Amino acid sequence: MVSLGCSKNQVDAERLLYSLQEAGFALSGNTEDCDVVIINTCAFIADAKKESIDTIFEFAAQKGKGRLKGLVVTGCMPERYREEFVRELPEVDVALGIGKNADIVAAVQSLLEGKGGSAFGEKEALSLEGGRVLANEPWFAYLKIAEGCDNRCSYCAIPDIRGRFRSRPMEKVLEEARQLVADGVRELNVVAQDTSRYGEDLYGKLMLPQLLTELCKIEGLHWVRVLYCYPDRVTDELLDVMAAQPKIVPYMDLPLQHASGRILKAMYRKGDHKSLLALCRHIREKVPGIVLRTTFITGFPGETQEDFETLCEFIRDVRFERLGCFAYSQEEDTPAHDLPDQLDEEQKARRAEIIMGMQAEIACSLAMEMVGRQIEVLCEGWNQEEQRWWGRGPGDAPDIDTRVSFTGSARLGEFVQVKITGAEGYDLTGEAAASAN
How far is CA 274 from the centre of its chain? Predict the structure, then answer.
């Protein structure tokens, strides 16, 4: 299986793999050993769709070579485009919408019998429960606590792809978390399209603070990290829990998208430079030492030079520890698609480059400020050439953030106290002091 896109999509892929493994299929990372390749796609923005299509073509070209008999494509792309996807990509033997993920075993068996086809169902039929085969290192896992989204930002197709927001029952989330920890997971990364909304649909109130409190009671779990918090729902109750629970790393992913009130309103979002600056300062006051990660979009329809300068000023004011910036992608079937004053691709990309250039200076400066401190690091690899270990600190989410390289004694999957001695761009370097396990 090749799983593209976000960590939420990865969790779906891991459930698919578990179903296949339970049905007796052997899993392999080597295409030459495989009868079937499954591509779990992303279709969020243009770049993601291109990556999905390129991957499909890459493996389609290998059909008939060795054992490979065909391709099954799942995930957001067939779900978003359905009949058009099937019609335009005959290279795909089987296409499943997310509502038909439960049919994965039958779909693969059918393909092996020489039968293709496609199947789509209700989005809400996507099961959020079941076992998983982790697709990453065994010491961390993503814990998906909800599916879908009701925010309806004007640029975003996710609600149409994934459906309405729906939380998992807390007992089911905790049951899965306990099993993951029993299997050796030490770090849980809590994910959803909007984690901060967790529980509102099931319990009538925001329940992320209570869920985090219960997760912290699991023996053997070392770190809990919270991703994808919607700014309007970051409550003092949530911040108090984060500050009080030592297992919760002081880290929050807070996708803000812009800082101009005019642009945010056009995005169907709330806030402006003043209110969002106050929010970031409040979070830092409530949770000392917290690392804030955010994402921004440049080149949204109608974004003026003044709007862009407001965003730049905001970034300089807040000095985010982690930041990503993307040029606006004009997505069909979203309200923003037909807005006037669309910017050209070059201008959108140039503004994103300016933001990332600013952030590079900020991030490198913040990295140098870490020199002399001691932090806990989860050891994740060994660099043979440099003769150094590398891992992630509390301020580093898997796959998207920076690394800490260090010398000394360590083991994979072990938490180590590391004294920071330097910085290489975004990344930190240091010396292992002692095991934190």
Answer: 28
Contact 251, 394 (CB under 8 A): yes
pTM here is 0.94
- CA distances to 19, 90, 142, 216, 431 from 101, rounded to whole Å, are 10, 20, 19, 31, 46
What average pLDDT does the structure give for the chain? 95
How confident is the model at residue 53, as a pLDDT?
Answer: 95
Q: Using CA atoms, how far apart are residues 79 and 148, in angstroms rounded to an integer?
A: 13
Instruction: Specify the DSSP class assigned to residue 290.
Output: P
Dist. CA 313–CA 295, nearest whole Å: 15
- Measured N-to-C along each axis, helices 7-22 and 104-112 cross at an angle, to the nearest 10 degrees, of 60
Question: Can you state the percent helix, strand and coil of the chain, rounding each to 5?
Answer: 40, 20, 40
Q: How many CA atoms lie within 13 A of 70 on its CB side?
A: 18
Instruction: Give the chain's domains with CATH numbers.
Output: 2-123 (3.40.50.12160), 140-369 (3.80.30.20), 374-435 (2.40.50.140)
Q: What are phi and psi of 329, to 5 degrees?
A: -110, 120
Which segments of the chain have a pLDDT < 50? none
pLDDT of 434 reads 61
One-letter identity of residue 89? L
Output the pLDDT for position 437: 56
Give the DSSP H or E segment for 104: helix 104-112
**Sequence-ordered list of residues with C-beta below 8 angstroms from that of 186, at least 6 positions apart, any chain:** 139, 140, 220, 221, 222, 223, 378, 413, 415
Instruction: Answer whether 75's CB lies under 8 Å from 123's CB.
Output: no
